């Protein structure tokens, strides 16, 4: 438990620092949107590209890891669809609740994996992201727009333009080509990647909205319990069923136990979802994850 806390507390300290910096308007309110764009389009793709370009893709557990990712997502999605039918949620509400249950804070996830497992863990996490990011994005858009219909083009075009997906694909292609990262390009990418996670965690904190925690307490509570406890438990069962090794199991469960992504708020607003509910879900899950993640990882490695 002590080792886990030592690995994780600096990550949450950065999130808290980001919140208070934004609260104090330092360096300015205009800084944070630009920082988020820089990270999303340049720094974070550099991390994913370099991780996949040099990843050992001959790991015999990779096919089972991919199967576990898709099976866990599929089962969670079916459960959400059943709840929608049972409760009669409109798309605006269902879209927010779905993103609360399925999306994940990528910055926190990769920072945690890097702290716990180093470069080997980051390579596995990047491979998982190549599967999870497009799948979860399709599910999220469909959930928010199901009532008014959605075309295949509107589902797939954002994914095809997503810099994280493009970075994963490019990194995998470089890996398969055997070219490597010559001429100091590995050092350049390493410098860009090193800036990504600290800046991303500061931006996560800056995006928190504690004022949005009122008015939807029951929905916020059960959705957070679903994301932080029920979905990781389901994922652990899937990992055991498929016989994943210990490190792959831990990384898989960790990603399904992360709080939802701050970018879910932007997508919810763009597609007419319940942005008040979405902001509350993001904030509460991020706060609760400071306790739930160490506890869950302790149980996994106990």
From TrEMBL:
One of its GO terms (biological process) is transmembrane transport. InterPro entries: Mem_transp_PIN-like, Na+/solute_symporter_sf. The keyword Membrane applies. It is found in: Cell membrane. GO terms for cellular component: plasma membrane. It is a multi-pass membrane protein. Keywords: Cell membrane, Membrane, Transmembrane, Transmembrane helix, Transport. The chain crosses the membrane at residues 6-26, 38-55, 61-83, 122-144, 164-181, 188-208, 220-239, 251-271, 277-300. Its main location: membrane. PANTHER family: AUXIN EFFLUX CARRIER FAMILY PROTEIN. Belongs to the auxin efflux carrier (TC 2.A.69) family. This is Transporter. It comes from Stutzerimonas stutzeri (Pseudomonas stutzeri). The lineage of its organism: Bacteria, Pseudomonadati, Pseudomonadota, Gammaproteobacteria, Pseudomonadales.
């Amino acid at each position: 438990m002590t080792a886990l806390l030592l690995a994780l507390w600096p990550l949450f300290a950065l999130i808290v620092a980001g919140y208070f910096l934004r609260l104090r308007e330092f360096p300015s309110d205009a800084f944070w949107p630009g920082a988020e764009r820089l990270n999303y389009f340049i720094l974070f793709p550099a991390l994913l590209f370099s991780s996949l370009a040099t990843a050992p893709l001959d790991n015999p557990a990779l096919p089972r890891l991919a199967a576990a990712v898709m099976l866990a997502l599929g089962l969670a999605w079916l459960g959400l669809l059943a709840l929608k039918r049972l409760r009669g949620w409109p798309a605006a509400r269902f879209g927010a609740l779905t993103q609360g249950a399925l999306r994940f804070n990528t910055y926190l996830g990769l920072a945690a994996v890097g702290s716990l497992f180093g470069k080997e863990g980051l390579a596995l996490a990047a491979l998982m992201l190549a599967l999870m990011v497009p799948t979860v994005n399709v599910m999220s858009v469909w959930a928010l727009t199901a009532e008014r219909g959605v075309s295949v083009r509107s589902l797939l075009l954002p994914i095809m333009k997503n810099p994280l997906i493009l970075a994963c694909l490019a990194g995998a292609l470089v890996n398969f080509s055997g070219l490597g990262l010559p001429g100091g390009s590995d050092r350049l990418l390493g410098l860009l990647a090193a800036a990504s996670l600290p800046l991303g965690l500061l931006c996560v904190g800056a995006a928190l909205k504690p004022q949005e925690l009122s008015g939807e307490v029951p929905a916020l509570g059960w959705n957070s319990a679903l994301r932080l406890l029920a979905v990781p438990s389901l994922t652990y069962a899937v990992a055991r069923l498929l016989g994943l090794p210990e490190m792959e199991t831990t990384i898989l469960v960790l990603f399904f136990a992360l709080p939802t992504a701050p970018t879910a708020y932007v997508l919810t607003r763009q597609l007419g979802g319940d942005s008040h509910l979405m902001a509350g879900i993001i904030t509460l899950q991020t706060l609760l994850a400071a306790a739930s993640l160490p506890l869950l990882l302790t149980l996994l490695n106990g």
